[in-house]
């Protein structure tokens, strides 16, 4: 059989799906006239998603006040894992659904009902599982550790975040068809603003309202020993909100099929096996491989600043509570900033904003390292002057502007290039890779700080304080372990060099990806063609 015959047979049995007509000039300007209501719904759905994330972030603070050990804190940290693992079940969410009810609503409505039910049940028992706060004595801490039910709390909040991650997959996919094609860039704005607002309500607002000191200082005319709310009541309130609003969405918002009139493309329906194969096919695409390389390496240049700077400030004497409170004034900025940036990322080249933000972020990384350097000279006798907090707030605020510019830009790019026929899986894959690109450098730089730091005992030159026994020997002899070379600054320098080199390499690669036609990002899967007998 000739090669030509073999090629003909192969095309008789395989075809490319979906057959989509790609118009290279099909780049419309954003037109929100018919999408304001949809944007409001997306914003609220993402806000609800941020509530359990924020509450799960508040639990470690409560555990710390109840005598939890760091081992127990580490155990509870598994509750945050679902958002890093959701790619494992995203194809299931994308392929299994009740067509009559809606592809995305088939998952969105049940998961939000379950979140509400979990919150209501948790509200009845969480105070008992957390126990009462200790006054810091060792006996009470030991007794409290016996009443803390860390494994159960971990499982419950793991499930809450699992459901929130599943809701995220459904909402990400729904956004691609709920909005007109020319408006999908605004989905990233709804995501970032909504999640930030939800996280603020679940974490910052709760911690403030739960604090007796905050409530007595700012919200009460007469002091009281407790805050305005406790975790049980807060969970009960948001559980009811989830149940009521989910019912309204289920009854009042109809999920429409992709429409050519709204710029959508034909939807491809696949079973679970085909969807997982599709995921493999996506990973094999040349543009995706380039994007994977970018996403997994882009954030390494900022890792030392992101992961270590705050810890170094605490070591230098900045109070932890004051450092945490610096975030609060910037929450409005984090909500408004994506709205301001979105008009620059809704077009065909959203990553230009990403590229422009990188040099500023690199410069602010150096500024942060400089602040760490001068901090010991500023803080005297545990007194931190107000101008120092202003300096910290200014640097952190500018850094957040650069960070959010990059975040909103890359989310807009994901929304633009994602194949709507498998939107949930496609978007989740890209988001997972982006998250992974931030997680692995953080782990590496934290792990390397001690190895790159050189210490000496002040009264014994042969003691390098490299382990607990040597540190005890130094302090027992009346000495003090002092840092001669701080690994943090070595990492800052390495990250700086790496960041500049990456920027030179990544700029060209990113612009090449932006110039690709949309059809280059569509998934071409070969499936058996049905022949008539």
UniProtKB/TrEMBL annotation:
The chain crosses the membrane at residues 39-63, 113-130, 150-176, 231-252, 288-311, 323-341, 353-374, 386-414. The keyword Transmembrane helix applies. Keywords: Membrane, Transmembrane, Transmembrane helix. Pfam families: Acatn. One of its GO terms (biological process) is acetyl-CoA transmembrane transport. It is a multi-pass membrane protein. SUPFAM superfamilies: MFS general substrate transporter. One of its GO terms (cellular component) is membrane. InterPro entries: AcetylCoA_trans_1-like, AmpG_permease/AT-1, MFS_trans_sf. Its main location: membrane. It is found in: Membrane. GO terms for molecular function: acetyl-CoA transmembrane transporter activity. PANTHER family: ACETYL-COENZYME A TRANSPORTER 1, SOLUTE CARRIER FAMILY 33 ACETYL-COA TRANSPORTER -RELATED. This is Acetyl-coa transporter. It comes from Anopheles christyi.
